[in-house]
Amino acid sequence: MLGARIAEIEQAMAQGGFWSDQDRANRTIQALKTLKAQRTPLEHLERGLHDLTELLALTDPDDHASLAQLGQDIALLKTQLDRLEIQRLLGGEVDSKHAILSVHSGAGGTESCDWTQMLLRMYRRWAEEHGYATEVIDLLPGEEAGVKSATLIVKGPYAYGYLQGEEGVHRLVRISPFDANKRRHTSFASVDVVPESDEDAPIEIKDADLRIDVYRSSGKGGQSVNTTDSAVRITHLPTGLVVQCQDERSQLQNKAKALHVLKARLADRERRKREEAAAKDYQAKQKIEWGSQIRSYVLHPYNMVKDLRTDHETGHSQAVLDGQLDPFLEAYLKWKASQSGEFGMRSAESA
Which CATH number fits domain 99-269+293-340: 3.40.50.1820, 3.10.50.30, 2.120.10.30, 3.30.70.1660? Predict the structure, then answer.
């Protein structure tokens, strides 16, 4: 039961010595926030249902104004129920964790770099709307404009669960602001999303398996913004995974953050291997390779954003680029559950 688990954690936090291990205390607090995020919608729904039941019993069938208000209250309750359904779909092993999201420009030079920067802004706006904290730990500017690649940590309950479906290739069609002839251009950018790994996760990284390169952090246009080699790039030789960090002035801090991201990517790699071994016939998740587009954003000759997996679409393309992603994120979660036959998955527990 959620209530019992919350009470257990709160009791542990009240014990002496709880703060002696800062890392452990922070993980415990995060777990408490996640549990409360699960319980709060249930409490609101139960209270709303109770109030509506009482009002319905007291309402005169001929009182049209009261009946109209009841209709509005029922619609609001249905919205809360829909949100609770989405929460049910976030029951995966790592759905509750923070997310590490990376964006990479495709072929096309300045056009694709500008599109990558637009995507980065979109995700930061979405996170801001949901009260999530964001931290850009690596950013490689484009030669003339935009961003070649960037890595963003999104911190908040279920950040990974919501953002997991963003992984793939995103396609933009628009009149290029960089083309003097105002021709239509198509740009591509890829998005990668992994859950942040727990510090005590059983992932061993051997020093002999790492190649560590240091370099100077770069700013807009490639100019150096630091006079020392503080930026760090780490290559995991057995897998070929490469991570880098340049947001701190200290080389040690950048190395620690880069190792943190590497650990998360290795943990995600192992988790996906386990999932594939347990369900070899599950084909819902495509490999992230150029050409496997998941969503198209069309700004000319008409406005439309369409997800190619769920068929969810909207004509309010600017709203989506301003961070209004929830309908697409929720449509993906429902589609994923239907593809894997998981609509009967674990239901949310009441307090």
Answer: 3.30.70.1660
